[in-house]
Amino acid sequence: MVSVGKKIAFGVGGVVVVAAAGFAILASTSKHYDTPAKAISVGSFKGDYKNSKSPIKGGNLSVTVPGTAAAPVSYVGYAEFNQWASVGVEQQPASNQLFYTDKHGKVESGGPATMKINRSDKTITITLRDNLKWSDGQDVTAQDVAFSLETLATNDVASSNFTSSFLNIKGMEDFQNGKAKSISGLKFDDGKDGKKLTVSYTSLPAAAEWGDGVPSNALPYHDLKNVSSKDLSTTEKVTKNPLSFGPFKVSSVSSDSTVKYVRNSDYWGKQARLNSITFYVNQDQSKLENDLSKQKFDVVTSVPTNLWKNGGADELSKYNNKNGYASTGKYASNYSEMYFNLGHYDKSTKTNVQDRNTPLQDANVRKAVGYAMNVGDVAAKYSNGFSLPTNTLVSKSTSKEQFYDKSVKGYHDKDSGDAKKAGQYLEKAGYKKGSDGYYEKDGKRLTLTYLARSGTATSEAEAKAYIAAWKNAGIEVKLYQDKLVDSSTWKSIVVGGTNQDWDLTLGGWAEGTVPTFDQLWAKSANYNFGHVVSSALSKNLTDTQNSSSQSELISNIKDFQKMMVDDEAYTIPTTTPISASLVNGRVTGWTTANSNDLYAQLGVSSNKPTTSGNPRK
Question: Matching InterPro entries, A to Z (predicted)?
Answer without folding.
Answer: Peptide/Ni-bd (IPR030678), SBP_5 (IPR039424), SBP_5_dom (IPR000914)
